[in-house]
């Protein structure tokens, strides 16, 4: 395959609150971008995800938004532009301590097709 192809990456971040609360919510977004191959696209998705990370303080507690996972990564073929589709956020259904460390680079998502 020569030239760049368009890729669709669905990313998930965890909103983590220091102390007892731990995982507060999940945030998700879709990014569409050009890449040379699947491995390069995965690395680009990780870079995009790290740009979405954030740290701020609420009172005395630290709140961090951390990249947790590249949920999907699909090759879309050729197309002219890059854009993001925000998927919103959802309430956390499981408890994770604030100290939990996500390793999104350890899980390559399966293609949908």
Report mean pLDDT, rounded to a whole number: 91
Number of helices: 1
Radius of gyration: 15 Å
Give a short account of the largest sheet. Answer: 5 strands, antiparallel
N-to-C series of helices and strands: EEHEEE
Strand content: over 45%
Q: Which regions have little confidence, pLDDT < 50, spanning 5+ residues?
A: none
Q: How much helical structure, as a percent, in the residues? A: 10-25%
Alpha-beta content class: mainly beta
The separation of the N and C termini measures: 18 Å
Any overview of this molecule?
- With 113 residues, the chain is mainly beta.
- The chain has one helix at 38-51; strands spanning 5-17, 22-35, 54-58, 61-77, 83-91.
- It has a five-stranded antiparallel sheet with strand order 3-4-1-2-5, covered by helices on one side.
- A hairpin with a 2-residue loop joins strand 3 and strand 4.
- It is elongated.
- The mean pLDDT is 91.
What descriptors fit this protein?
elongated; mainly beta; 1 helix; 113 residues; five-stranded antiparallel beta sheet
How would you summarize the topology of this molecule?
Layout: E1 5-17, E2 22-35, H1 38-51, E3 54-58, E4 61-77, E5 83-91
Antiparallel strand pairs: 1-2, 1-4, 2-5, 3-4
Short recap of the structure:
With 113 residues, this protein is mostly beta strands.
């Amino acid at each position: 395959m020569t030239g760049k192809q368009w890729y669709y990456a669905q990313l998930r971040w965890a909103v983590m609150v220091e102390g007892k609360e731990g995982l507060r919510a999940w945030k998700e977004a879709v990014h569409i971008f050009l890449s040379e191959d699947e491995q390069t696209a995965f690395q680009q998705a990780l870079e995009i995800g790290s740009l979405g990370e954030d740290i701020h303080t609420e009172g005395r507690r630290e709140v961090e938004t951390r990249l947790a996972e590249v949920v999907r990564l699909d090759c879309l073929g050729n197309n002219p532009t890059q854009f993001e589709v925000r998927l919103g956020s959802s309430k956390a259904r499981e408890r994770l301590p604030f100290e939990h460390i996500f390793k999104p680079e350890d899980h390559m998502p399966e293609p949908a097709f």
